[in-house]
Amino acid sequence: MHRRGVGAGAIAKKKLAEAKYKERGTVLAEDQIVQMSKQLETFKSNLEEFASKHKQEIRKNSQFRVQFQEMCATIGVDPLASGKGFWSEMLGVGDFYYELGVQIIEVCLALKHRNGGLITLDELHQRVLKGRGKYAQDVSQDDLVRAIKKLKVMGNGFGMIPVGGSYLVQSVPAELNMDHTVVLQLAE
């Protein structure tokens, strides 16, 4: 008859094996953390180099800015997350979108008495461009969308409503139910 490992000796042996596995797991985890830290440092320095090399292009060219934003989004970096920090200092993109947000608010408030707080993205784009002047940085509709998303932190006053193939910008704090949305889509 074959004897199984039961008793105090078997329990002690099992605990010793578990302790060794746990110790080895901790060593492996620490090695992985060190490797990940090195990779992140390399990535950060390469991204900083890219950003500083193409700073002017990012600030002036709206298509390039969109591509840069998409690249950052795919790797989980949000250059608009804060007005303070690396991206704001390096590129000034945080400031750009905050200034654009202020211009959007000004246009929406100026027209609120005429449109009730709803304006098409196209009209908003035209009016913001007109207000910026011909020597200012080019602004795309994607830039407007990103700035409006940043305005959401101020509450539910600003938002985007999809209507057909376009968007309406809502600048008044009001809940639109499905009936309102259907009416807007039909009116479009």
From TrEMBL:
Pfam families, alphabetized: EAP30
Gene3D superfamilies referenced in this protein's UniProt entry, alphabetically: 6.10.140.180, Winged helix-like DNA-binding domain superfamily/Winged helix DNA-binding domain
InterPro entries listed in its UniProt record: ESCRT-2_cplx_Snf8 (IPR016689), Snf8/Vps36 (IPR040608), WH-like_DNA-bd_sf (IPR036388), WH_DNA-bd_sf (IPR036390)
Family stated for the protein in its record: Belongs to the SNF8 family.
Identification of the protein by name: Vacuolar-sorting protein SNF8
